[in-house]
């Protein structure tokens, strides 16, 4: 059970209540608590993300596309194929996404000077502004969530979550190499 240093009292969440009823299940309750809390936080953060994107007139998928282009330095351009790979979208889905983003004035398609058959996707000024505003708004919300932790606790949590993430990354790399 979590003991809040700030409030000086024990606090229980819905996972604690579930675990109290799961004592006869053949599971490690500590592991179950970790996984349930990570899943619950992920759902809530995703919902918060979706709300932020809706407030800025874009979808989360649009946000990911704009972010991929924003990080494509120095000119904020990627081939349509490379962008589709990064977003894990089929060519048909990528075309539909680009149609929508282009119609909204957030990206523009250019002929690839290195390959006349190729298409480059470029972030427009409007796309940069939309992405930056959404990032700032989401960061503000995330800061509110993280304000429950001290600076030291944030470092500790990041270190622990990194260790968990590395287990998955190694497992995925091993299965790709088979």
Task: Summarize the structure in words.
Helix 2 (29-55) runs antiparallel to helix 6, helix 3 crosses helix 6 (125-146) and helix 4 crosses helix 5. By secondary structure, the chain is an alpha+beta fold. It folds into three domains: 1-55, no CATH class; 60-129, Winged helix-like DNA-binding domain superfamily/Winged helix DNA-binding domain (Arc Repressor Mutant, subunit A), CATH 1.10.10; 151-178. The chain is built from seven helices and five strands. It has a three-stranded antiparallel sheet. The chain has a two-stranded antiparallel sheet with strand order 1-2. It is 65% helix and 13% strand. It has helices at residues 14-21, 29-55, 60-70, 80-87, 91-103, 125-146, 151-177; strands at residues 2-4, 9-11, 77-79, 107-112, 115-123. Strand 1 and strand 2 form a beta hairpin.
- Give the beta-strand count: 5
CATH architecture of the largest domain: Orthogonal Bundle
Strand content: 5-15%
Task: Give the count of structural domains.
Answer: 3
State the shape: elongated
Biggest pleated-sheet summary: 3 strands, antiparallel
Q: In the CATH scheme, what's the topology name of the largest domain?
A: Arc Repressor Mutant, subunit A
Distance between the termini: 41 Å
**N-to-C SSE series?**
EEHHHEHHEEHH
Helical fraction equals 55-70%
Poorly predicted ranges = 1-9
Average pLDDT metric: 91
Spell out the CATH superfamily of the largest domain.
Winged helix-like DNA-binding domain superfamily/Winged helix DNA-binding domain
* Spatial sequence of strands, sheet with the most strands: 3-5-4
C-alpha Rg, in Å? Answer: 21 Å
């Amino acid at each position: 059970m979590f003991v809040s240093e700030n409030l000086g009292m024990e606090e229980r969440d819905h996972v604690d209540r579930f675990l109290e009823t799961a004592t006869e299940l053949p599971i490690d309750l500590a592991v179950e608590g970790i996984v349930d809390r990570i899943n619950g936080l992920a759902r809530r953060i995703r919902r918060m993300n979706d709300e932020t994107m809706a407030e800025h007139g874009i979808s989360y998928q649009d946000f990911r596309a704009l972010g991929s282009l924003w990080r494509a330095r120095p000119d904020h351009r990627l081939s349509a194929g490379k962008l589709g790979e990064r977003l894990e979208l089929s060519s048909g889905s990528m075309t539909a996404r680009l149609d929508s983003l282009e119609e909204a004035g957030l990206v523009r398609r250019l002929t690839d000077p290195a390959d006349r058959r190729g298409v480059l996707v470029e972030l427009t000024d409007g796309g940069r502004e939309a992405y930056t505003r959404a990032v700032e708004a989401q960061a503000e919300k995330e800061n509110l969530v993280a304000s429950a932790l001290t600076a030291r606790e944030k470092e500790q949590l990041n270190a622990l979550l990194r260790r968990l993430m590395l287990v998955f990354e190694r497992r995925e790399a091993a299965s790709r190499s088979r």
